[in-house]
C-alpha cells in the first residue's frame, strides 16, 4: 500500500500538471516510426515530408528506444541513425518551427527484440524487480531526454502478451474465459508483483522527470492485459496521459488461420467480447475518474491475410482457412501489413461492373452501421492464385473513431503511424488524409 508521504507527494506533483492535462481536450498524439527514415524506395519518409503532419499533431512520439539487458539503461535501437546521424536532435529541433509541438521519446513498443527477433519482455520485467535497476534506468532516461531535448518519455512497456484464442462457440469461449481467470500465472508467474513494481517505477520516474520539467506518458500495447499489469488508479496519478492499444485485436501473425476485422469499434456477434474499442475504453473508464487522460489508438494501415480456395468468395468476415500473412506491399515491404497508400492503390485498380479484369486489385466492402469497420478483398483464383483479405482504416472510419473519442469525453486520439499514412498525397492528392480526417473531427 502506498504511504501517506507518497500520496502527499503525488498531490503536490499533480498541482503542477493535472490542470494542464485536463484542459487539453481533443489532443492528437502522432507516433513516428524512425525506421521509416532509412527505408529504401517510396516508403522512405524524409524530415521534409514529415513536417506537414506536424501542423496537426499536439505530440510527436518518437519510436523506439530500448533497454540494455545488462545495465538497464535506455539505449537507441538504431544508433547509426540516432547518434551518428544526429536524428534525435534533428527531430527535437523541429519545435523551433512548430512551437505548439511536444516531442517524446518512446521506449519498447514491441520493437526491442531478442536474438530470435521476438519482442523481449523478460528484461522489462527484470528491470522492475530491483531498485538498483530502476535507478539505472531513471538516471539514463533523464540524461538522454536532457541531452537531446526531448519533452518527455513514453512508456510503451513490453509486458508479456495474452496468448491467441482459438475461434470458439459461445459456451466454449465462456468456459475458456473462466479458466483464464485462474491461469494468469501461465503468462507471468509474478504478475501481481510486477504490477506493483511497475506502479513504483512510474511514480519514481515522475519524481525524476519533474525535476527537469519533462512529461511522462504510457502507451498500452495490443494484447497486454491491463488487469494483470497496470494498477490504473496509481499509474494514472503520475502520467500525463495514456494511449490505449485499441487496434490489432486480430492479426495474421496471431490468427493465421482466420481473418477478421482488426479493430472493431463495438463488440461483434460471436467474437471475443474484449476485442473492440468500446470494451477497452470502458474498462479504463471504470478504473479512473479522468477520461481526458485517455486516448484511443487509430491506425493508418491495414492487416492482410492470404485467402485460399477454401476461404470462400464473399469476403464476409470471419474468413476461414486463411494461410497467414499476405505478401508485403510494394512500398512498405512488411508482410501482412499494407500502408494506406498501398491499399488505396489496390482499390483504384478494381474496375467494377461485376467483373475484375486485373488480378492485382481489391474490392472494398463498407460498413453502413459505422460500428465495426471496413475491409477489402480479392478471392483466390480458379488456378490456385492466392487471394487477399485486408481489414483497415480509411479517412472516414478514422473520423468515426475520433467522434467516438469525443462523445465519451476522452482526451483525444493516438495515431499509429505517420509513416504509413499517405504522406506524399499519391492516392487522392492530399497529404496525410487519415491524419487530417482525425484532426478535423477533433
Report the order of strands and helices.
Answer: HEHEEHHEHHEHHEHHEEHEEEEHEEEHEH
CATH superfamily grouping: Glycosidases
Low-confidence stretches: 1-23, 168-172, 175-183, 352-357
Our count of helices gives: 14
Secondary-structure arrangement, i.e. CATH architecture: Alpha-Beta Barrel
Which strand-content bin applies to the residues? 15-25%
The total tally of domains equals 1
Kindly report the CATH topology: TIM Barrel
Name the CATH class.
Alpha Beta
User: What is the overall silhouette?
Assistant: globular
Mean pLDDT: 90
Biggest sheet architecture: 8 strands, parallel, barrel
Sheet with the most strands: spatial strand order: 1-2-4-5-6-7-9-16
- State the end-to-end distance: 39 Å
Class per helix and strand makeup: alpha/beta
Number of strand elements = 16
Describe the structure.
By secondary structure, the protein is of the alpha/beta class. The chain has one domain: Alpha-Beta Barrel (TIM Barrel). The protein is built from 14 helices and 16 strands. It has an 8-stranded parallel beta barrel with strand order 1-2-4-5-6-7-9-16, surrounded by 5 helices. A hairpin with a 6-residue loop joins strand 2 and strand 3. The longest helix is centred in the N-terminal third of the chain and has 20 residues. The protein starts with a helix and ends with a helix.
